[in-house]
Amino acid sequence: MAAFEYYSFWLQVLEKGFGFFFFGFTILFSIFSILVYILRLKPWCNCDLCRSYSTSSWSLEFNNLCDWYSHLLQKSSTGTIHVHVLGNIITTNPKNVEYILKTRFENFPKGKAFSVILGDLLGRGIFNVDGDSWKFQRKMASLELGSVSMRFYAFEIVANEIKTRLIPLLSSVSSKEGTILDLQDVLRRFSFDTICKFSFGLDPACLDLSLPVSEFANAFDLATQLSAGRAMTPSPLIWKLKRFFNIGSEKKLKEAIKLVNSLAEEVIKQRRNKGFSSHHDLLSRFMANTDDNKYLRDIIVSFLLAGRDTVASALTCFFWLLAKHPEVKEAILDESNQIIGTSSSEKLASLEEMQKMHYLQAAMYESMRLYPPVQFDSKYCQEDDVLPDGTFVKKGTRMTYHPYAMGRMQSIWGPDCHEFKPERWLQDGRFKPESPFKCPVFQGGLRVCLGKDIALVEMKSIALSLIRQFDVQVIVPTSHSPRFMPGLTASVRGGLQVQIQERRYKSS
Ligand code: HEM
């Protein structure tokens, strides 16, 4: 007995000693990491740009950080700037963009810093990986998304959501005079329904306003918001420590991700029970190739992120621009009348008819040139490099290209770069695409967006239905540019408040 007490006494001493050592080591290691991080960032940098960033004095003059960056990039002779306090080089130079996204693709991966920030939410999904894992997923996803049958499937889903939910909802609003609607919210609900139906064949019915917003949509929203918030903290150690102690925003994030995971698992289970071999949705197609549930969960979450807020953001800004430019709305209406006819405003355009609408396609691209849903995108430099404009990029530097600022560069678009002119995308009345390195709205090079065609079909279908059947009056002042919320995708602060009236259709 005495021997037992003797051993248990020493065991306790050892346990406490080890705990104390471990705790001390963690604290010392954290302090050391903070110091290394601080030394790399040069927080003492007192150049005008860094001082303005650190004190947020830029916000006295500009509504959005992206507007301030655009201003600085326009002034720079190379179209490139260095924010020393962030260890971030930002460029708008199309030659640099091509170099990063294509020529030296291997030297500019997404990198660990990005994948750690989004890792808890996205797991090993296509957005969050580099190397072989990315190549494998890219190959599989491009086979599916590139197929003609998938495009028809996506079109059918969108057309059905328009006919059965969007039009009835807007008609009911238009009949109640004075009703104000947040169009951005409606578009987000629409794109959540369609991306869920498309990705895993289930309908969350978010656009049905009589139902409460789906738990899944809410949890997903919160998880993306809080994950994006991690990138805004001055040092990653802050959110890592909060995650370690499970406090504050990290506690909320953990709970939101737990809910997303359990709902994703439920989706996979339901799909398996219903059988997937005869279904067209993306999940069923991936299930035919793998039975790894974690991998399938990561695919679901990545596609939700890809297809939800991007489409809603692009369309919100499109309608904001149309409110300022009624002549563009009239031109779209005229073109559609010529192709679909004027006998019925309710008739939806077919895929073939939409392909003939060159002006509509030009207006969509012109809107995204000025208001890209993904305003900037960062990679990490693996080995020291020199960009085509002569900028030296040190290993470990965050390298950002900035589509929002690129749309405002005179050197790329000429002196009328700030104007909304769909005609700049037309040659002899036909849509003429620009180099993706000049307008990288869907990125460019080896990781170019895989859902570009599907997104455009969705956006054009919604825009046409709204323009042909309703008069959408934006009720916020369109004299100012929109203010954006910080996040992975640009969404307008306060939404887009509109009033809707059903059009009295002119019969031909
Ligand atoms: C207007 C709508 C859209 C815009 C502006 C857009 C833009 C982008 C951008 C900028 C990227 C690169 C992201 C990065 O690597 O950091 C990307 C990647 C991707 N997008 Fe889209 N996207 C849109 C809609 C969609 C839709 C609807 C889908 C799916 C149905 C989709 C699927 C993807 C996928 C799978 C990738 C990853 C490609 C890869 O990493 O190899 N996108 N998109």
Automatic annotation (TrEMBL):
InterPro entries named among the record's database cross-references: Cyt_P450, Cyt_P450_E_grp-I, Cyt_P450_sf
Which cofactors must be present for this protein to function? heme
| Annotated residues for binding of heme | C449
The GO molecular function terms of this record are: metal ion binding; oxidoreductase activity
Q: Does the keyword ATP-binding apply?
A: no
- What keywords appear on the UniProt entry? Heme, Iron, Membrane, Metal-binding, Oxidoreductase, Transmembrane, Transmembrane helix
Known Pfam families for this protein? p450
Kindly list the residue ranges recorded as spanning the membrane: 20-39
Matching entries from CDD domains are given as:
CYP86A
Q: Transmembrane among the record's keywords?
A: yes
Q: Which SUPFAM superfamilies match?
A: Cytochrome P450
The entry sums up its family as follows: Belongs to the cytochrome P450 family.
This chain belongs to the protein called Cytochrome P450
